[in-house]
Amino acid sequence: MNLNSSSNFTAIERLESLKAGLLAGFCVGLTHILLSSLNLWLWGQPINVWLSVPIAGISGFLLGVTYRYIIRGDHNPQLKLGGIFAFGLVRGLAEIDIQLKTQTSLEEIAILGSESLLLFGIAGLILDKALQKGWIKPFA
Q1: How far apart, in whole angstroms, are the C-alpha atoms of residue 80 and residue 77?
Q2: What are all long-range contacts of 12-16, with beta carbons under 8 Å and residues at least 24 apart?
Q3: Which end of the chain has a smaller Cβ tally under 10 Å, C or N?
Q4: pLDDT tens track for 60-77
Q5: Residue 8 three-state SS
Q6: Burial of 131 (0-12, 13-18, 19+ CB in 10 A)
Q7: pTM
């Protein structure tokens, strides 16, 4: 099997995707720490930082890598929001599914679901700024 025969992705494209992934992963991980601290203060719910933050960061990394390919050179706000909502909803609905199996209030469940959308929304805004400033190049 020849791995180079049909790939349209150059080393430069892969590097730009890596940069986008690292930026988004860092943003989602940091935002997750801040929101988790707020949750601890409001609800008294501790989180397993050693597990939860890396999972959030990996999710953010995947958003960053994928986001470049989703938007390409388009200036379509629905496409951008669709990518962010897809990641946010998948993560949020998974959290909600788990919380429904425990004695968790609907208010807390709604907050957890909203947090996922916020995590990826913030990462999307920062990725857009990085793309506008040329720190990360859009997929050609």
Answers
A1: 5
A2: 12/137, 13/139, 13/140, 16/68, 16/136, 16/137, 16/139
A3: N
A4: 999 999 999 888 877 788
A5: coil
A6: middle
A7: 0.86
